[in-house]
Amino acid sequence: MVTEPVRILVVGGGYVGMYTALCLQRKLKPELKRGEVEIVVISPDPYMTYQPFLPEAAAGSISPRHVVVPLRRVLGACRVIVGEVQSIDHAKRTASFTTLATAEEGTGALDIAYDELVLAPGSVSRTLPVPGLADHGIGFKTVEEAIGLRNHVIEQMDIASSTRDPAVRDAALTFVFVGGGYAGVEALGELEDMARYASRYYHNVKAEDMKWILVEASGRILPEVGAEMGKYTVSQLRKRNIDVRLETRLDTCEDRVAVLSDGARFPTRTVVWTAGVKPHPLLAATDLPLNERGRLKCTAELAVDGAPHAWGAGDAAAVPDVTAGEPGKECAPNAQHAVRQAKVLGENITASLRQQSLQEYAHKYVGSVASLGLHKGVAHVYGRKLRGYPAWFMHRVYHLSRVPTVNRKSRVLAEWVLSGLFKREIVSLGSLEHPRAEFELAAGGERPKES
């Protein structure tokens, strides 16, 4: 008798999705060769983004293509589908998804059956109903947003350099970042560093002409590195003339004017929103159990609680922290846990298929590192607190060890060495966002307006 292979469906190609599929194709190599198992990965993008490197990509220290890992190259034993899962009916073991081809064909969503489900769609930016945010805000969660922001900052410096209107110049040189977590602080630190360096090549734009503002609703920034390192970070940013406003919110950014809850008003053409994330909307389109925050209810073995053959980890999952002394505490939704959870998840799915016992995920949080720009950083690791160059160096070493594949490690290291030997690149390639603009203009169209 010919039996159908066991199909493992991995939804999402981020940290958890890619690392789980990587572990599965290694652990289930005999079964894959015999055709007893099939691994299918559905991801909106054909690559995994190593997000801790986004600030350095925005600053030009790393090439954008080296921040991403192509899924098809890494997951050679898996079937990779570039598409978006729209809904999941776990009771029937089916998922509905769309691809670029379905839109062209007009066939609507397709269905795929599965035996084991790994749900790891990640998270999306958490936005608030701030007037003007949807029209003028810039996110910082994808490599496209990071490179777009770099181009945008340099373009604002070009506008300031060429305008005769003081109001336009002031707005162009004012940069507002909302959110004092990793993404906001690291993005601001790297871009301010880059813009200050670039200003030496402008005859009429100086570093002190630019206004950099960090807005945080709570009373501290970078809570992951501890209160002491958070205060140190604030002091260091303020020494660089960065306006850090704690316990302050963005009320509106309509008409390109950022109005804060403390009454301050800043005409600006740049509002970067990094104020947290929320679970992916796909989770609400499933019949799987969710907690009050909209994340998957998972066991310590990374199985979805009460849903056999469904698994979860990373940002989308509420995983009990068995190393914590207090009951009910969950693992933080960060990369440190996601990468380690993916390894345990792959091993547990393999053990489940082979009818072996499962292991609990247990990892004690060891600390955090953050970059504040070139040769500047903070770290709180294993109880030790570092600042300045040692923390920045630790940040680079740690993330170089974590970025997947030897290929990517080598390329990133080579770029760091070259950037240390030669000057920074300060070229804006904003035209990449409108590749047909010149041809459309030549053919009688209109040039797209600058954002």
From TrEMBL:
Gene Ontology terms for molecular function: NADH dehydrogenase activity
InterPro entries: FAD/NAD-bd_sf (IPR036188), FAD/NAD-binding_dom (IPR023753), NDH-2 (IPR045024)
Domain FAD/NAD(P)-binding per the UniProt entry, residue ranges: 7-342
Transmembrane regions: none
Pfam families: Pyr_redox_2 (PF07992)
Keywords associated with the record: FAD, Flavoprotein, NAD, Oxidoreductase
Similarity remark: Belongs to the NADH dehydrogenase family.
Protein name: NADH dehydrogenase
UniProt source species: Streptomyces silvensis
Lineage: Bacteria, Bacillati, Actinomycetota, Actinomycetes, Kitasatosporales
